[in-house]
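# nightly structure sweep
# worker-07 picked up a monomer target from the shared queue
# config: single-sequence mode, recycle default, output format = structure tokens
# input follows
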Amino acid sequence: MCIPAAVPIPVDLFISKKHPGLNGDLGFADSQGNIVFKVNFDKLSKSSSKRVLLDASGNPLITVFRDGKGSWQGFKGSDSREDLIFRVNRTVKKLTRTELEVFLVGEISRESTPDFKMKGFAFQRSCTIYRSDSIVAQTSLMYKLHQIYAGRSKFRLTIFPGSVDHSLIASLIVIFLYGQ
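# output follows
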């Protein structure tokens, strides 16, 4: 299922490793339970620095590599490091707060000005992505009525209307929550 970049209402995707048929990989499902994106973690090594965002059919969309301490790079497609899309640098890493800056490659902006900023607390599955002063996307735990503690294994990603590619947002969320 392909989701257009400019949708008039916010889009909710539900993130979990427990979606049927994923075999432990991370999945992004729509409100109907259909897998929109899935993430393959390199299972050969626990400390692997590679994440691949796939579409519902298993085609690679974005491959993310850890470039250094707190730094990531995202490339279009699968294993090649040829078509760079974005760079991510960690600016703050504290016990209860992480902040990342995202620089899109090819955007007309100064090198020192990030295109997006990400702020949150990965342990609580809390992340907000900003473009300037606007919220682009946000994650939150799945609370239920009369529930004191919300499990961290399934949570919601809300992507707000705008011109941001949903696969880019999904790959940034994977870096924020699973790349630390």
